[in-house]
What does this fold into?
Amino acid sequence: MKRILLFFFSLYSCLFALGQGFGAQVHVAANFSQVDGDQLGGYNKLGLNAGLQINRTIKEDWEGAFEIRYSMKGAKKVIDPEAPATFTLKLNYDYVEVPFLLKYTKYDKITPFAGVSVGANVRNQREENGIVSNEQALNFMELGFHFGGNYHLTDKWGIDLRHSYSLVSVRDFPIVVNSPTWFGRAGWYNRLFTAGFTYTP
It folds into this structure.
């Protein structure tokens, strides 16, 4: 309940900013996520991603924007129907995050963007073989990187596609590395694709 109240308070703060010459978009989307480093593969964890974007033109063909989003991340082990289930695992990591984006607005039908985000973990749940617990040493804060684009269906409606990745490990815990890592990094990193709709009032 507390995380929901925090999220809507943040949305209210963003709506207040609209009176200061800013524009807005409402976002409703789905996350397809995994956690790099947990030894599970595939974007098998489905979750909600919803929030509000506040934007403003900073120069010709460029906009700056920040968002308030509730993002459900994590990972899930897929059960093979042809093999007996000996191990089940589902990681539920929910965040209230604030991405800061730079948008290129020259094109008529698509607006590419990229930026970084700061997120606060508001749900930490590990379901392993039916036993529910908290993930050990999961960090409260997450720093992330985002890039993607918005395809404009109409003046008000669009399709938002983006990829997001943790810049630093989200778990402060000894890591056993069994495979090559990017740039020699070891740790746990949220990785997700997000697809959904935007509405501009």
Observations:
- The first strand starts at residue 23 and ends at 36.
- Residues 2-18+30-199 form a domain with the Porin fold (CATH 2.40.160.20).
- The mean pLDDT is 85.
- Strands lie at 23-36, 45-59, 62-76, 89-104, 110-128, 131-133, 141-152, 157-166, 189-199.
